[in-house]
Write a structure and sequence with these properties.
The complex is a heterodimer of chains A (372) and B (261).
Chain A: E1 5-6, E2 9-10, H1 12-28, E3 32-38, E4 56-58, H2 94-102, E5 107-112, H3 123-137, E6 141-145, H4 148-161, E7 164-166, E8 170-173, E9 179-185, E10 190-195, E11 203-207, E12 221-225, E13 235-243, H5 251-254, E14 257-261, H6 270-279, E15 283-286, H7 288-292, E16 313-317, H8 323-326, E17 334-339, H9 346-349, E18 352-355, H10 358-368
Parallel strand pairs in A: 3-5, 5-12, 6-11, 7-11, 14-15, 14-16, 16-17, 17-18
Antiparallel strand pairs in A: 1-2, 3-4, 4-6, 8-9, 9-10
Helix pairs in contact in A: 3-4, 6-10
Chain B: E1 2-5, E2 10-12, E3 15-16, H1 24-40, E4 44-49, H2 52-65, E5 69-73, H3 83-97, E6 101-105, H4 116-124, E7 127-140, E8 143-152, E9 155-162, E10 165-169, H5 183-188, E11 198-201, H6 210-214, E12 222-225, E13 233-235, H7 238-247, H8 255-260
Parallel strand pairs in B: 1-4, 1-6, 4-5, 5-11, 6-10, 7-10
Antiparallel strand pairs in B: 2-3, 7-8, 8-9
Helix pairs in contact in B: 3-4
The chains are: A alpha/beta (372), B alpha/beta (261).
The complex binds flavin-adenine dinucleotide and adenosine monophosphate.
Adenosine monophosphate binds next to helix 1, strand 4, helix 3, strand 6 and helix 4 of chain B.
Chain lengths: 372, 261
C-alpha cells in the first residue's frame, strides 16, 4: 500500500490501505510493515513534517531476517521514546508512528532516501530506497494506496521484484478463505480475480481509498534502514509545483457523498444537482456523456477511463448505469438512482431508486432535506 | 528514435471495439509522440503486441498519422501474458528498433493496469514518469533532454529528464463535443485494411524464447463475467426516499428531529 503523509499524520488514503493490509495479514497470520520513506536520519524531527510515502509491506508469518544485514541499521525503538537521540536513535515523528501502530502496522520501517522535503515522491526519487527495503524484508505482498504516487511507484517495484501486479483492486475472500484481489475490467463487464494462494511469487497491489482504517492496534516496533539508496540522476525537477487547474475533481476521491449527473440532466437542471450535493454535504460528479455535453468540467468525470471514487452514498441522476461509469464506483457505496425510465439499467445496480424526471424530483428532495 | 506503444481498444476480451480504435491514454501518447518526432526531427515507430486482426488497424492509423514505421509482434501465447511478460516482449522490440524515447499510455482503458510502461522502463534500464500531460524537447549538446509536465495529486510538476526514458501519458481531458473532429479523431477514420508496410516480428526474431516468458502466464488473474445485478428498492415519492435513507443512516436526521431529541 502506498500512502502519502498529511502533515505529521498518515494520509486518509494511507490509513485506508493500511486497514486493508491489516485485514489481509490477520487472515494469513502475517506481519505488517509500514514502510516510511524519510529524508535521512541525521535531521531533527521537524524535518519529518512532510513525509513522502508510507507503503505498508506484508511479510511472511514471522519477522523476516534481513538478507544483507550489514547494509541495514536495524534499531528497534519504542514509540514512546522517539526523541531519544543520545543512544544514536534518530528523532521520529511520534504521532505518525503511534497512528500507524493503531492503524494496524506491526512494525514501522523508516527508510532513508535522498529526497528533499518538498519533492514529489516518484520512482526516480524513492524507488531505489523502497526496492532496497523490499530486498531486506522479502515481503509476500506489498500494498499501495491507489493514488498518483502509487501509480508511479507500485508497478515498477512489482517489475523489479518480478511480482504479480493488480491495480485498483478490492480485497475479497475466496471460497476457501483465500485472499483474492478483484477488479473490474473491460468497461465493467468482467472482473479479474487474482488469488494470492495461486501465486508462487510476491504480489504488489494498489487499493482504492475509502475503507475504514483498522483500529485498536498497539504500539509498533520501529526499524531503521540506511541502505545508501541513490536517486535516478536522469530525472531532475525544474521549478516549483503549481496547483493543477483540474485539481478540483480530486475532492471526489475523498467525498463521502457524491451526486453524479448523466446525459439525462438538462443544462438548466444541473444547478439542482449542485444544490442536492450541497444539502447532502457532498460533491458533484459527472458521466462521460455529461462531460461531452459540456454539463460539467472534465475533471469531474467518474468512470473506468477517468476517476475512481469510494463514497458512502452515491446518488446517480439521469445516468443509465453503464459499466464504464459504475465500474469505478466502490462496491461498498450505497447507490441511489433517479431516472425517468423505470427500465434504466441503473435500477439494477442501485439499492434505492426513484422514478421521475430530474426537474420534478430533485426540487422535492431538496424540500424534504430542508434545502429548497 | 521515438517508440509509441499502442494497443487496440477491446470492448470485451478478444473483441475489438468498433467505434473507437484507441483508448484515451494511447491517443494522448500517439499525438504527443508524433508532435515530438517532428519537433526533434526524429523517426517515430509504433509498436503493438497482438494478433494482426486486432492491432493492424491501430498501426495503420499511426502510419497515416505520420509515424515513420509500424511494428507488430505476433506469436502464440502472447495473449495470456501478464504485464511483465508483455513488457519483456516490448522491451526486446524497443531494443531491436533502437528507440531511446518511449511513449505509452498511463493505463489501457480496458485492463487499466497501468503497469506496462514502468515495467518496460525497468527492463530497458530507463527512467520513467507517469501521469505526463505534455512533453517538449531541449537540446543540450549531444544529450537528449526532455522537459515534461506531470499532473498528479492536484499539482503540476515539471521535470527535465534524460533519455533513455519511458513516459506514460495521462488521458487528455474530455472536451465538450463540437462536431468537428480533432486530429486524433481524424486518425481513427482509417481504412480497416492494414497497409503492407507494417513490419511483423515474432519472438524468434527478437531473440526471445517462449520459455523465457512462459512463467508470466496466468499471473494476471482470472477473467470472470460480472453477474447479473439485483433490483433497487424503488421509493414511491421523494419523501419516501429520504425517509428510507434516513432510516438507513445514509442521510442525517431532519433538523426538527434533532431539536426534538
Ligand atoms: C472502455 C470504456 C471506458 C469507459 N469509461 C467511461 C468513464 O470513465 N466514464 C463514463 O461516464 N463513461 C465511460 N464509458 C462510457 C459509458 O459506457 C457510457 O457511454 C456513459 O457512461 C453513458 O453516460 P450516461 O449514463 O450519462 O448517458 P446515457 O447512457 O445516455 O443515460 C442517460 C440516462 O438519463 C435518463 N434520462 C433522460 N432524461 C431524463 C430526465 N429528464 N430525468 C431523469 N432521467 C433522464 C435516461 O433514461 C437514461 O437512463 C466508457 C466506455 C468504455 C467502453
Ligand atoms: N499489447 C500491447 N502492445 C503495445 N503496447 C501496449 C500493449 N498493452 C499495453 N500497452 C501500452 O501500455 C499502456 C498501459 O497499459 P496497461 O498496463 O494495460 O494499463 C497502454 O496505454 C499502452 O500504451
Amino acid at each position: 500500500m502506498h500512502i502519502e503523509a498529511d502533515g505529521e499524520r498518515p494520509s486518509a488514503a494511507a490509513l485506508s490501505a493500511l486497514g486493508d493490509a491489516r485485514r489481509i495479514a490477520s487472515s494469513l497470520g502475517a506481519v505488517v510493515y509500514a514502510v516510511v520513506i524519510v529524508p535521512g536520519f541525521d535531521q531533527g524531527r521537524r524535518s519529518y513534517s512532510r513525509l513522502p510515502t508510507i507503503p505498508p509491506v506484508i511479510g511472511g508469518g514471522s519477522t523476516p531476517k534481513p538478507s544483507r544485514a550489514p547494509s541495514a541499521t536495524i534499531a528497534p525503538s519504542s514509540p514512546s521514546s522517539p526523541d531519544d537521540t543520545a543512544d544514536g536513535n534518530p528523532d521520529v515523528p511520534d504521532e505518525l508512528i503511534e497512528e500507524l501502530g493503531k492503524g494496524g502496522a506491526d512494525k514501522v520501517v523508516l527508510v532513508a532516501a535522498p529526497i528533499a522535503l518538498d519533492e514529489p515522491p516518484v520512482w526516480a526519487t524513492i524507488g531505489a530506497a523502497l526496492a532496497g527495503a523490499c530486498e531486506e524484508l522479502r515481503p509476500a505482498l506489498v500494498v499501495f494506496a491507489a493514488t498518483a504516487v502509487g501509480a508511479d511507484i507500485a508497478p515498477r517495484l512489482a517489475a523489479r521484484l518480478g511480482a504479480a501486479f493488480a491495480a485498483h483492486c478490492v480485497v475479497e475472500t475466496g471460497p476457501r478463505g483465500e485472499v483474492v484481489f478483484s477488479r473490474k475490467v473491460y468497461g465493467g463487464g468482467f472482473r479479474r480475480r487474482l488469488a494470492l494462494d495461486d501465486l508462487d511469487r510476491a504480489a504488489v497491489v494498489t487499493v482504492p481509498p475509502g475503507h475504514a482504517p483498522a483500529r485498536g492496534g498497539s504500539d509498533a516496533e520501529i526499524l531503521m534502514f540506511e541502505l545508501g539508496a541513490k536517486r535516478d540522476a536522469r530525472v531532475e525537477r525544474v521549478g516549483g509545483d503549481e496547483r493543477d487547474p483540474t485539481a478540483d475533481g480530486l475532492a471526489l476521491e475523498q467525498a463521502r457523498v457524491i451526486v453524479t449527473g448523466g446525459a439525462g440532466v438538462a443544462a438548466s437542471a444541473w444547478p439542482l444537482l449542485e444544490k442536492l450535493a450541497a444539502a447532502l454535504g457532498g460533491e458533484v460528479g459527472a458521466t462521460r456523456a455529461a462531460c461531452e455535453r459540456g454539463l460539467a468540467p472534465a475533471a469531474r468525470e467518474i468512470g473506468l477511463g477517468a476517476r475512481y471514487v469510494a463514497p458512502v452514498l452515491y446518488v446517480v441522476c439521469g445516468a443509465s448505469g453503464s459499466a464504464g461509469h459504475l465500474g469505478a464506483v466502490s462496491p461498498d457505496a450505497e447507490i441511489v438512482a433517479i431516472d425517468r425510465d423505470p427500465e434504466a439499467p441503473i435500477f439494477r445496480a442501485a439499492s434505492y431508486g426513484l422514478i421521475g424526471s430530474i426537474e420534478d424530483v430533485v426540487p422535492k428532495l431538496l424540500a424534504e432535506l430542508g434545502a429548497s | 528514435m521515438i517508440a509509441i506503444l499502442l494497443r487496440r481498444l477491446q470492448s470485451r476480451p478478444s473483441a475489438s471495439a468498433d467505434d473507437q480504435v484507441l483508448g484515451r491514454c494511447e491517443r494522448g501518447a500517439l499525438t504527443a509522440a508524433l508532435a515530438l518526432g517532428s519537433a526533434m526531427n526524429k523517426q517515430t515507430i509504433a509498436i503493438a503486441v497482438g494478433p494482426a486482426r486486432r492491432e493492424d488497424r491501430v498501426l495503420a492509423m499511426a502510419l497515416r498519422g505520420g509515424a515513420s514505421r509500424a511494428v507488430r509482434v505476433s506469436d502464440e501465447g502472447l495473449e495470456d501474458l501478464d504485464y511483465l511478460g508483455l513488457a519483456q516482449v516490448l522491451a526486446a522490440t524497443i531494443k531491436w528498433v533502437g528507440a531511446s524515447i518511449v511513449l505509452c499510455g498511463d493505463r489501457s482503458e480496458e485492463e487499466g493496469t497501468g503497469a506496462v510502461g514502468p515495467a518496460v522502463a525497468e527492463l530497458i534500464g530507463a527512467a520513467h514518469l507517469t501521469s505526463i500531460a505534455s512533453i517538449k524537447s531541449e537540446s543540450n549538446g549531444a544529450r537528449t533532454m526532455l522537459l515534461v509536465e506531470r499532473v498528479a495529486g492536484g499539482t503540476r510538476e515539471r521535470f527535465r529528464i534524460e533519455a533513455p526514458v519511458v513516459l506514460c501519458m495521462r488521458p487528455p481531458l474530455v472536451r465538450p463535443r463540437t462536431g468537428t473532429g480533432d486530429t486524433t479523431e481524424e486518425l481513427t477514420r482509417t481504412p480497416r485494411n492494414a497497409p503492407s508496410s507494417i513490419e511483423e516480428l515474432d519472438l524468434g526474431r527478437l531473440g526471445l524464447e517462449a520459455r523465457a516468458i512462459g512463467h508470466r502466464r496466468g499471473t494476471a488473474g482470472r477473467l470472470r463475467p460480472v453477474r447479473g445485478p439485483r433490483r433497487a428498492a424503488v421509493a414511491s415519492s421523494a419523501a419516501d426516499l429520504i425517509r428510507r435513507l434516513r432510516a438507513d443512516h445514509l442521510v442525517p436526521p431532519a433538523r426538527v428531529d434533532e431539536e426534538a431529541s
